[in-house]
Design brief:
The complex is a heterodimer of chains A (347) and B (296). With 347 residues, chain A is mainly alpha-helical. Chain A has 14 helices and no strands. Chain B is mostly helical. Chain B has twelve helices and no strands. Classes of the chains: A mainly alpha (347), B mainly alpha (296).
Chain lengths: 347, 296
């Protein structure tokens, strides 16, 4: 187990390093003159001496590889450089922005899980065909709606129409509601699409028939027996969902004029603030990597069929037989509850 | 289309007579799926607006008439007018070309770039495969909008740059699918036979492997249409795309934002057009996907 955890952490660090390296080459090496980009298109009266000074200040007069290792060195000491726009350290700019973004992202994710999950459960549970069809039409619409437009509609209805929630700003808990709903829409739609698909598949499993045969009601089978197993495949797209939330904040925080990571990103791109953009890329990759790492580490605990490589070898030695598939070994340890014991192959 | 092919395979003797029932079946298939019909019709309208905006409106998208500024939708101005009195319907129709061009350019870049990378990785294999796919994995760890934003930072603003940024951001996804298809096809006997016949490797790759691996990639590209429209209009909304006064769907919503308290139509209608177009694109892509799976 320790070896598994360590190797997963090692891989995560490697992905982070690679993401940072790619962003370095895109941002510093690809453009012919990063110093010009930093100054922006409007800077026409810059003297050659000033340009040279700027290049020297950011080390742009050094060979590419020297620059790369200098940046890598300061990255290892936790230094992401200085923002060109505001002149403060990038870590400080990003650090301040994490809090407000975390508020709307967490509330948005919860809303997405509750409503996305609700739509999926209800759509597969109902025997009313029209209602089921209607519910299944919702997620594709949720995915197709542009986030900025949905946010503006919410502002029209709830801020200017009903005067319930503020249209702009980041003060107080009521300012979290509309941005969180905006973030929740595409994420909730993704969750609903995945979960309804995997619920339909799970409800065909023999153990569902067993549960019915024991006299369990439809709600009980749906929620206690099927949902647990059906939710597992949805966990594998955690990285995708986290990325979706992060992308959503750029548009959402711009529309609602809230401070946060998305706003920092939009401002940095607008001002072509290369160090900040690179810092944001690193943060986004870190969030993705950590989310996936957590899922990887938790998954074997939730789904005992995913036997780790080491213990699988041990099992094989004990049984003297090879289990069917790598992740679906029939010799998996006992499931946490008998009712949830999976009988078929997972998705 | 596939139904025609199947019929033709079943009765190869009478190709000409088969074409008529084949087309009729396709039509009946469309009638049985009303949402698909609506989606196809809508996309046809969008393409018409992009190619021949004059066929849908006679007004000039830049002609301002201050006398009628900020009027709500009525018989004379179907979508209302903006703060300068320009007809919003005309601006949406004329904006279609910019949005559609950007989306199509993005898809082409993603398709060509992703296919080349995927073909190389799958066909050459070994170290090339490992390196290319690891890079693709890393790119997938960065949210695609952020990747596009990074590229826009370097390239600067404008519709073409936005299209390039959106296209480059989709290369990794397409490359992965292409690679897995190539790996599947490469071991097929006809590929072996083609090599044994003395064909050059590039001929085997282009004539035998590519056409048989392209199916899922093309379906993915169709799905990318909706994603690309959304990404392009988001970037334009943020102000990195088409610059005023050029009409573009995302920037139309963005300018309407300043009048949101009083003039709902300026944001609602262009946004609705974007949403319906993405929905229609996704619906058609889904139909193509089912069709392809059914054939296989």
């Amino acid at each position: 187990m320790t070896r598994y955890v360590l190797s997963r952490i090692g891989q995560a660090v490697l992905v982070l390093w690679a993401a940072w390296t790619i962003s370095f080459f895109v941002l510093y090496v690809l453009p012919s003159d990063p110093a010009r980009i930093m100054l922006g298109p409007d800077a026409t009266d810059v003297t050659q001496a000033q340009l040279d000074a700027l290049r020297h200040q950011y080390g742009l007069d050094q060979p590419v590889l020297v620059q790369y290792f200098q940046h890598l060195g300061s990255l290892l000491t936790g230094d992401l450089g200085r923002s060109i726009g505001v002149g403060r350290p990038v870590t400080e700019v990003i650090g301040e922005a994490v809090g407000p973004t975390a508020q709307i992202a967490v509330v948005g994710l919860l809303l997405a899980i509750v409503f996305g999950g609700g739509v999926a459960v209800l759509a597969t549970w109902t025997r009313n065909r029209a209602l089921g069809q209607f519910l299944l039409q919702l997620p594709p619409i949720g995915v197709a709606v542009p986030g900025f437009w949905f946010a503006l509609l919410l502002v029209q209805w709830f801020s200017f129409g009903l005067h319930v929630f503020p249209a702009f700003g980041g003060e107080g808990p009521s300012s979290v509601v509309l941005p969180a709903i905006t973030l929740a829409l595409p994420t909730g739609a993704t969750i609903a699409q995945l979960l309804s698909k995997s619920l339909v598949a799970t409800l065909r499993e023999p153990y569902v028939d067993t549960a019915y045969a024991k006299g369990a009601g439809r709600w009980r089978v749906q929620l206690r027996h099927a949902l647990k197993n059906a939710a597992l495949p949805a966990l594998t797209v955690t990285g995708l969902i986290v990325g979706q939330l992060f992308s959503g904040t750029v548009v959402t925080e711009t529309v609602f004029s809230r401070p946060g990571l998305g706003r920092v990103t939009a401002t940095a791109v607008q001002g072509q603030d290369i160090p900040v953009v690179q810092g944001i890329v690193l943060v986004a990759a870190a969030i993705f990597v950590v989310a996936n790492l957590v899922v990887d580490l938790v998954y074997p605990l939730l789904d005992p069929r995913v036997v780790l490589a080491g213990s699988r070898r041990k099992l094989r030695e004990q049984d003297g037989a090879t289990p069917g598939g790598p992740a679906t070994g029939g010799t998996a340890p006992a499931a946490p509850t008998p009712s949830a014991a999976p009988q078929g192959a997972p998705a | 289309m596939t139904e025609t092919t199947q019929l033709a395979i079943g009765r190869p003797a009478s190709l000409v007579t088969d074409r008529v029932p084949g087309g009729a079946t396709a039509l009946r298939g469309l009638a049985a799926r009303p949402t698909l019909t609506v989606a196809v019709l809508w996309l046809g309208l969008v393409v018409l607006a992009a190619l021949l905006p004059g066929a849908l409106t006679h007004h000039d998208p830049l002609a301002a008439d201050p006398a009628v500024k900020l009027t709500a939708p009525d018989a004379a101005h179907w979508f209302g007018t903006d703060q300068l009195g320009r007809d919003l319907y005309t601006r949406v129709v004329h904006g279609t070309a910019l949005t559609l061009q950007a989306a199509i350019l993005a898809i082409l870049i993603g398709l060509v770039g992703g296919s080349v990378v995927g073909l190389l990785a799958g066909f050459v294999g070994g170290v090339v495969d490992t390196v290319l796919m690891r890079v693709a994995d890393v790119l997938l760890a960065i949210p695609s909008l952020l990747l596009s934003l990074t590229i826009v930072t370097v390239l600067g603003f404008g519709t073409v740059n936005v299209a390039v940024a959106v296209g480059v951001a989709s290369i990794a996804t397409i490359a992965r699918i292409m690679r897995s298809e190539v790996v599947r096809v490469r071991t097929a006997q006809y590929v072996e036979a083609a090599t044994a016949n003395g064909n050059r490797w590039w001929r085997v790759l282009l004539v035998h492997v590519l056409p048989n691996a392209a199916g899922p990639v093309l379906v993915l590209a169709a799905l990318e249409f909706g994603t690309a429209i959304l990404a392009v209009s988001s970037l334009s909304f943020l102000g990195y795309g088409a610059q005023p006064p050029a009409p573009e769907w995302g920037s139309l919503v963005s300018t309407g934002r300043d009048y949101i308290a009083t003039s709902w139509w300026l944001t609602t209608i262009p946004g609705l057009v974007i949403a319906v177009t993405v929905l229609a694109g996704n619906r058609v892509a889904r139909a193509l996907d089912t069709e392809r799976r059914a054939v296989r």
